[in-house]
Specification:
Number of domains: 4
Distance between the termini: 78 Å
CATH class of the largest domain: Alpha Beta
Number of strands: 11
Structural class: alpha+beta
Largest sheet: 5 strands, antiparallel
Radius of gyration: 53 Å
Strand order of the largest sheet: 1-5-7-6-4
CATH architecture of the largest domain: 2-Layer Sandwich
Number of helices: 21
Helix content: 55-70%
CATH topology of the largest domain: BirA Bifunctional Protein, domain 2
Strand content: 5-15%
Length: 755
């Protein structure tokens, strides 16, 4: 869950606060306070990412526009009491998971809802955490380095300060901004007055606005599948967590410097307690999860076992059916073996009859002959053997019956084996036939290939032969040339047929969009805010904006078109191959601003170092000349004019060298122009300040030095002076009643000096 930080406070004169000063601080701007006659300069403040004025839709519809200085000076003028609330601030945290543009869009969206809901004007300033350099005991004291014991702020602390007016705005004369001095917004009413007008209390209203912020943020967070915010308190969420107390500016600054405070100790105890509760909750959750996993495992085993029961039941049913079939087969075998059994039984009966006849014969023999006694004695043994033979015959009969039971099954198995063997034989015959056909077909093809190879056979060239190597590399070069020509033709076809090349058209539309929106604060460094390109690498820097402005002027681009899409398409049509080739630097800035900036810095690094060394030498020379003239500012400026001629000559010689990159040449020309402008100002101020010198001798010394310098510059640098520079020098010379004549020959930018 994303953290929710939502706070509000009043900006009151009773606390010695000024709405203009607060707005200047939060925007990192320079604002003039008309009520107190002060200028609040916070232009060096770091961490300000953007600042915007948001008007309610009702005021926008009337065509009213206002800047930050006018807004808060007007808000201050509308309050007459010494303890009046002049503004209200809403502080919200911005999800660090979002990009810079997404956070900006979210803050502006909520501010717009706040303006329309409360009928106020909002000043939205987005801040980022300002990280300091690591502590270095040997480094000089600096605000950019951590003090001993100090800590950096949380790098996730992206937040927005939303200052709103306490009165409803109205449209004044000529679509100007005004506030009704008798109309305070209902939010600033007391609770007694709110209840009398059937309005909820201030706390309930703050809670409602907090929920409005959470709902607005959750819409954006849901789009990017990020954890959502929860406006409920820990108690309402059912969490055993204790909220920390508000530290305040003073306590927070002391804690960052390593000084413990009472509020900090309380918050540390609360954090430790919450961490212990969280760890216990995590441990309980782990135990609960372990139990849940065990239950889920048992449930899965039961489900799997239950799922397999149907299979077991099916197998059991199948086995019962098989057993029934076996039993039926056994009964059938018994019925089939019944004749044999009957025959064996009849054989046994016949043996019994023979036994009876033998007995009768024995009895007759015993009666008839005395010698038959020995045979009669052996007769019981013979009967016993016969009975044993009958007993041994019964197992054989049972084995025969069992064999008869298995005879049908064995017959079926044997028939199946015979059928499978027949199928395999048929498949083998078909395979042999197909292979024979393939062999016959391939034989003719092989004969043709062999005959062709035999006809074309020739000795292979030796790779060690020089002629062979030259021919090989010549073929390789020819192939490379053909490939290069094909690639070039393809590229030319792309540029020549823009209507059929969607990718190129899309690229040109992107380029035209970047050119038209080059001055948008979202895409460029804001002038007057001292923005650093290192903090905003994805934005155009000041130099790049100047180049793009010149490029747009050359193309005739409308910077404020009435129909943006139509102008975008028109500008895309202007990006012909000739234009892109003639303005390659501008195209590189549009497509690859970071790479172009890096290449420019690398190309100008040598000239920059050269210029730093030259400036040091000039500064030393200026100090020597100033010691001869005096210690005043007039002496300092006069000394600077004496060295400017040689200074510019050295820079010009360095610029005109062939090995100097064009970027350095461009930078040198710009530096020369700026130096001449400053020199013209120094001449003007020096001449005007001659009357402030202490003695006539000192004034004559300065006049002589200035005349020598001016004559030298007039002969060497006149072609680079602008008309405004000549005007400045002319205004300065009027002090001596010795003005110069301005002669503009054929060009506006190439006047000359005559005394």
């Amino acid at each position: 869950m994303t953290m929710v930080h939502f706070d509000t406070k009043a900006i009151s004169r009773k606390a010695g606060q000024s709405a203009v000063a607060c707005a200047a601080y939060r925007a990192g701007d320079v604002l003039d306070d008309a009520k107190y006659g002060k200028t609040h300069d916070y232009s060096r403040k770091r961490g300000v990412m953007s600042s915007d004025i948001v008007l309610p839709f009702a005021l926008k519809a009337l065509g009213v526009s206002v800047d930050r200085e006018t807004l808060w000076n007007t808000a201050e003028a509308a309050e007459n009491r010494s303890d009046s609330r002049v503004a209200r601030e809403w502080l919200i945290n911005l999800p660090y998971e979002l990009s810079e543009e997404e956070r900006h869009t979210l803050a502006i969206s909520f501010a717009q809802k706040l303006c329309d809901d409360m009928d106020v004007i909002a000043d939205v300033c987005i801040h980022r955490p300002v990280m300091k350099l690591p502590f270095d005991p040997e480094a000089k004291p600096s605000s950019k380095r951590l003090r001993e014991g100090e800590q950096n702020p949380d790098p996730r602390n992206f937040h927005a300060h939303i200052m709103v007016t306490t009165r409803a705005p109205i449209a004044g004369p000529n679509k100007t901004l005004a506030f009704d001095p008798k109309l305070k917004i209902p939010f600033e009413w007391s609770n007694k007055k709110r209840l009398a007008n059937d309005l909820p209390s201030s706390m309930k209203e703050i809670k409602r606005i907090r929920e409005m912020w959470v709902d607005t943020a959750n819409v954006v967070l849901a789009q990017y599948h990020l954890p959502l915010m929860d406006a409920r308190s820990y108690k309402d969420q059912g969490l055993d967590q204790q909220p920390t107390i508000k530290m305040g500016v003073e306590a927070t600054a002391m804690e960052r410097r390593g000084i413990t405070t009472e509020k900090g100790d309380i918050n540390r105890e609360i954090i430790a307690r919450n961490q212990a509760v969280t760890e216990q909750t995590i441990q309980q959750g782990s135990e609960h999860e372990r139990r849940v996993r065990a239950l889920r495992k048992g449930l899965a085993w039961t489900t799997e076992h239950n799922a397999s029961l149907s299979g077991f039941i099916g197998d059991t049913t199948q086995r019962i059916d098989d057993s029934e079939r076996c039993l039926n087969s056994a009964e059938q075998g018994l019925r089939e073996a019944e004749p044999e059994i009957n025959w064996s039984s009849e054989d046994g009966a016949r043996a019994t009859n023979r036994t009876y006849r033998a007995k009768r014969q024995i009895e007759a023999a015993n009666d008839g002959a005395a010698t038959a006694g020995q045979y009669a004695e052996s007769l019981p043994e013979l009967i016993k053997d016969t009975e044993q033979l009958i007993a041994n015959t019964k197992p054989n009969l049972e084995w025969t019956a069992k064999r008869c039971e298995n005879l049908p099954k064995r017959g079926d198995d044997t028939q199946q084996r015979i059928d499978k063997a027949a199928q395999r034989i048929d498949y083998s015959k078909r395979w042999i036939t197909q292979n024979s056909e393939r062999v016959q077909a391939s034989k003719s093809i092989t004969d043709g290939i062999n005959s062709g190879i035999t006809e074309r056979a020739r000795p292979a060239p030796s790779p060690f032969d020089d002629d062979y190597q030259r021919a090989f590399y010549e073929r390789k070069r020819r192939v490379n040339r053909e490939i290069a020509n094909a690639v070039s033709a393809r590229d030319q076809a792309k540029f020549g047929d823009e209507s059929n090349h969607n990718a190129l058209r899309e690229t040109l539309m992107v380029m035209s969009h970047r050119l038209l929106t080059r001055n948008n604060p979202k895409f460029c460094l804001r002038p007057g805010y001292n923005d650093n390109p290192a903090d905003y690498p994805d934005k155009f820097d000041y130099r790049q904006i100047d180049s793009l402005n010149r490029f747009a002027e050359a193309l005739g681009v409308d910077s404020n078109p009435s129909d943006f899409r139509a102008e975008q398409r028109r500008v895309a049509d202007l990006f012909t191959p000739e234009v892109m080739e003639n303005h390659a630097n501008a195209i590189d800035i549009i497509l690859k601003r970071q790479r172009e900036r890096k290449a420019y810095e690398e190309a100008t690094s040598g000239f920059t170092q050269f210029l730093e060394r030259l400036d040091k030498k000039r500064a030393t020379k200026n100090n020597e000349l100033q010691e001869r003239l005096g210690k005043s500012d007039i002496s300092r400026m006069t000394a600077a004019t004496q060295t400017v001629s040689s200074y510019l000559k050295i820079i010009t010689d360095e610029m005109n060298k062939e090995e100097t990159p064009w970027q350095s040449q461009e930078l040198a020309a710009k530096h020369i122009k700026e130096t001449l402008r400053l020199t013209a100002i120094q001449f003007q101020l020096s001449y005007e300040g001659l009357k402030t010198l202490d003695s006539v001798e000192s004034a004559q010394k300065h006049i002589k030095a200035l005349e020598t310098s001016l004559s030298d510059i007039a002969t060497k640098c006149s072609v680079t002076f602008t008309e405004s520079d000549f005007r400045r020098i002319h205004d300065g010379l009027t002090v001596l009643n010795k003005p110069i004549e301005i002669d503009i020959k054929s060009s506006y930018s190439s006047p000359s000096l005559r005394f």
